[in-house]
């Protein structure tokens, strides 16, 4: 099992759920203090009950305990103007497992799509550092699709 210091350094002292910085000096009992979240996906857990099915990630104490024993949800940034955004973690898992393309969201303007594409690439770069992705924006029907390709 990795130590809090090792997991914090691995994740750059950023909470994997809310993507905000985590202060390593705060108490682990503080709501915004650091904690280790044992990220287990349903697919990984079904395949194996070993340590390989668990990926330790850094989270704020409230982010970690707030989700309890439910699937983690990584929210889209509230400042983005996106329509029908897909859940980020399942999309990343599909891209990592199968490759290919994934439509991540629709946007009403090209500038909005460019901002969403840049944000999702950056966010997934921290969420799944080994996953190499490219983005593409396609116009269609008066909207812009943000597509990721593995």
Can you walk through the features of this model?
With 150 residues, this protein is α+β, with helices and mostly antiparallel strands. The chain has two domains: 4-67, no CATH class; 88-149, no CATH class. It contains five helices and five strands; from the N terminus they run H-E-H-E-H-H-E-H-E-E. The chain has helices at 4-10, 42-47, 61-67, 88-98, 110-127; strands at residues 34-39, 55-60, 101-107, 134-140, 143-149. The strands form two sheets. Strands 3-5-4 form a three-stranded antiparallel beta sheet. The chain has a two-stranded antiparallel ribbon with strand order 1-2. A hairpin with a 2-residue loop joins strand 4 and strand 5. The longest helix is centred in the last third of the chain and has 18 residues, at 110-127. The radius of gyration is 16 Å and the shape is elongated. Mean pLDDT is 85; it is low at 41-46 and 48-52.
């Amino acid at each position: 099992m990795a130590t809090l210091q090792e997991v914090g350094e691995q994740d750059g002292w950023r909470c994997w759920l809310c993507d905000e910085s985590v202060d390593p000096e705060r108490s682990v009992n503080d709501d915004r203090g650091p904690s280790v979240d044992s990220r287990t996906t349903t697919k990984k857990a079904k395949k194996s009950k070993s340590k390989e099915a668990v990926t330790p990630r850094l989270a704020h104490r409230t982010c970690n305990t707030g989700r309890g024993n439910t699937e983690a949800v990584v929210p889209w940034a509230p400042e983005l103007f996106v329509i029908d955004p897909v859940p980020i973690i399942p999309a990343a898992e599909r891209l990592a497992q199968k490759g290919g393309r994934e439509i991540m969201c629709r946007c009403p303007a090209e500038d909005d799509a460019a901002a969403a594409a840049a944000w999702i690439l950056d966010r997934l770069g921290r969420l799944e550092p080994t996953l190499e992705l490219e983005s593409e924006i396609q116009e269609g029907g008066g909207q812009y699709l943000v597509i990721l390709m593995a």
